[in-house]
Amino acid sequence: MPDTIETCELPASALLRKYVYAGAYTDCYVTQIAASVSLAEYVEAFYTTVPFKLERFILKWVVSKPSSDSDARHLALAQADSFAAWRVEGRSADQLLLCDFRQSTRSWLMVAPPERNATGTRLYFGSAVVPARTKSGEAQMGFVFQALLGFHKLYSRVLLRAATARLVR
């Protein structure tokens, strides 16, 4: 298991960074594991954990967006540009940025070399929530966002911890 999951600034090269500049809510979580992990391994592990399978189950029944572990593998290997309720918005050798079907949220995963001359991999997970526009054009996050923010922060840590546990097994 990873020692810690911390909140941090988005790395300068993060594909999610453009949403900071656009005024969206963004967050970033990071942990470091001793194993050397590729982006494909991380993406597949992340989207096939038990907590995320629960989310996939909900998406299947609530918004008719089914997905499977095989679909997660295809996404991880860059053999698919969509997965469940998301489509690929950006991809590089070390990052994946997904946009939900309503275009209101983003999910971002990144792998990086470890810090402090250690071995292994740093694993990043972040999100963006794009504010809705009022009739006057003002950006507004809304009540639902405020009400669910605490849950979102906890759930983000749960997802990252589950993915890292899967990777170190």
Q: What number is the mean pLDDT?
A: 92
Could you tell me the strand content as a percent range? 25-35%
| CATH fold-level topology | Alpha-D-Glucose-1,6-Bisphosphate, Chain A, domain 4
Contiguous uncertain segments of 5+ residues? none
Please give the radius of gyration in angstroms: 16 Å
Number of helices: 5
Which CATH C-level class is it? Alpha Beta
Overall structural domain count: 1
Write the layout of secondary structure elements.
Layout (H helix, E strand, L loop, with lengths): L5 E2 L9 H5 L3 E9 L5 H9 L2 H13 L6 H8 L5 E2 L2 E6 L3 E6 L4 E8 L8 E9 L2 E2 L5 E2 L1 H27 L1
Antiparallel strand pairs: 1-2, 2-7, 3-4, 4-5, 5-6, 6-7, 8-9
Could you explain the architecture of this structure?
The protein has 169 residues and is of the alpha+beta class. The chain has a single domain, classed as Alpha-D-Glucose-1,6-Bisphosphate, Chain A, domain 4 (2-Layer Sandwich), CATH 3.30.530. It has five helices and nine strands; from the N terminus they run E-H-E-H-H-H-E-E-E-E-E-E-E-H. The strands form two sheets. A seven-stranded antiparallel beta sheet has the order 1-2-7-6-5-4-3. A hairpin with a 2-residue loop joins strand 3 and strand 4. Helix 2 runs antiparallel to helix 4 and helix 2 packs across helix 5.
What does this entry show, briefly?
The protein has 169 residues and is α+β, with helices and mostly antiparallel strands.
Features:
169 residues; seven-stranded antiparallel beta sheet; alpha+beta; Alpha-D-Glucose-1,6-Bisphosphate, Chain A, domain 4; single chain
